[in-house]
């Protein structure tokens, strides 16, 4: 049953103080540690950060697909169209996955089953969610493959994943994700395995799909170049926390957190000659051995004594721009 007309006003998706922990022999790993953000209709939000900072685990937590038994969502809310997904039954959650919120994983080879045909795999969400009558499934699948620019889609329905190139497989994964008409699409580094030319084509395709299907997108990446092409806003993650939220324009013009600044400085500049490319010293901390205070303090060139003992509060700099850093909290308290 379509409930769009009864959907409440406000954000389409709202994540509040989400915490996902892993209970291991080494201790409790805080993979997602108090994450909060909103996603509006037809908006693209980027989750940016290094590998291991909690981006993918945040998206898996939204869909309640955290790998168990070690991983558990311990607290928080995930409000989708006003309904808390962490409080509904597993049967209700199955109806949300694919139909309400869909996900594109970063490796199409692990997503597509090599022993099933392409047509059968794209058709599966249609059958599960009963989007179209059984007699219309083949036609719908053909249209979906055409939508993602698969040449001669009708003749490729019985082909298998190994008969497609990497770029075509990634597009097939996209067709499968949007087949049931979701409201939110989570794209987890979908261009990682693609070359530069195909990357640009795929990003253009995502924008076209968003416009044609009225999608809201959560785009997970560590690539600032691809993020700038597709996102409206950005949430910068580090060690399971969001350290800064801002628009894409503000990200490149006035980043506030030292980690965000370091990510930008790590991008090679064609207009400058350098003897050594800038990099962020050290490595992200292990989630089950986080330092006290700000997790970025051991790598931060501007860290103060308070950074190593107390976690910084969130400070609002401008409408739509907030940062968790003592440099700005200190300035705010002084004024």
Helix-strand layout with pairing:
Layout lengths: L12 E12 L2 E13 L4 E5 L6 H8 L8 E10 L2 E2 L5 H7 L4 E4 L3 H4 L6 H12 L7 H11 L5 H4 L9 H13 L5 E5 L7 H18 L2 E6 L2 H7 L2 E6 L2 E7 H6 L4 H8 L48 E5 L2 E4 L1 H9 L1
Parallel strand pairs: 3-8, 3-9, 6-7, 7-8
Antiparallel strand pairs: 1-2, 1-4, 4-5, 9-10, 10-12, 11-12
Helix pairs in contact: 4-5, 4-7, 5-7
Structure notes:
With 335 residues, the chain is an alpha/beta fold. It has one domain: Rossmann fold, CATH 3.40.50.300. It has helices spanning 55-62, 90-96, 108-111, 118-129, 137-147, 153-156, 166-178, 196-213, 224-230, 248-253, 258-265, 326-334, and strands at residues 13-24, 27-39, 44-48, 71-80, 83-84, 101-104, 184-188, 216-221, 233-238, 241-247, 314-318, 321-324. It has an 8-stranded mixed β-sheet, sandwiched between helices.
Query: What top-tier CATH class fits best?
Result: Alpha Beta
How many structural units, i.e. domains? Answer: 1
Number-wise, the strands total 12
**Uncertain spans:** 1-8
The CATH architecture assignment turns out to be 3-Layer(aba) Sandwich
Shape: globular
Distance between the termini: 53 Å
- Rg from Cα: 21 Å
Give short descriptive properties of this protein.
alpha/beta, 12 strands, single chain, 335 residues, Rossmann fold, disordered N terminus, globular
Q: Quick recap of the structure?
A:
The protein has 335 residues and is of the alpha/beta class. Helix content is 32%, strand content 24%.
């Amino acid at each position: 049953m379509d409930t769009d007309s009864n959907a409440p006003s406000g954000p389409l998706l709202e994540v509040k103080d989400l915490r996902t922990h892993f209970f291991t022999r080494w201790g409790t790993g805080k993979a997602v540690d108090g994450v909060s953000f909103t996603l509006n209709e037809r908006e693209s939000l980027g989750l940016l950060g290094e590998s291991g900072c909690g981006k993918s685990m945040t998206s898996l937590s939204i869909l309640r697909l955290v790998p168990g038994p070690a991983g558990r969502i311990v607290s928080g809310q995930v409000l989708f169209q006003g309904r808390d997904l962490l409080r509904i039954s597993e049967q209700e959650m199955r109806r949300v996955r694919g139909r309400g919120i869909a996900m594109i994983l970063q490796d199409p080879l692990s997503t597509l089953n090599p022993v099933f045909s392409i047509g059968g795999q794209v058709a599966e969400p249609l059958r599960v969610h009963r989007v179209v009558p059984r007699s219309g499934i083949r036609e719908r699948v053909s249209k979906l493959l055409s939508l993602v620019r698969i040449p001669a889609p009708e003749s490729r329905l019985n082909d298998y994943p190994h008969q497609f190139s990497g770029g075509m497989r990634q597009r097939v994964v996209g067709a499968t994700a949007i087949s049931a008409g979701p409201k939110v699409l989570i794209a987890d580094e979908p261009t990682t395995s693609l070359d530069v030319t195909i990357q640009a084509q795929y990003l253009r395709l995502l924008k076209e799909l968003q416009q044609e299907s009225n999608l809201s997108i959560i785009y997970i990446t560590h690539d600032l170049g691809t993020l700038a092409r597709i996102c409206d806003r950005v949430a910068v993650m580090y060690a399971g926390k969001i350290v800064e939220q801002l628009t894409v324009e503000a990200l490149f013009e006035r980043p506030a957190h030292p980690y965000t600044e370091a990510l930008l400085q790590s991008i090679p500049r064609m207009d400058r000659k350098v003897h050594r490319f800038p990099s962020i010293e050290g490595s992200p901390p292990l989630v089950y051995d986080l330092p006290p205070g700000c997790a970025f303090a051991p790598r931060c060139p501007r860290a103060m004594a308070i950074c190593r003992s107390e976690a910084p509060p969130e400070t609002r700099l401008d409408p739509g721009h907030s940062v968790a850093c003592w440099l700005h909290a200190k300035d705010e308290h002084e004024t």
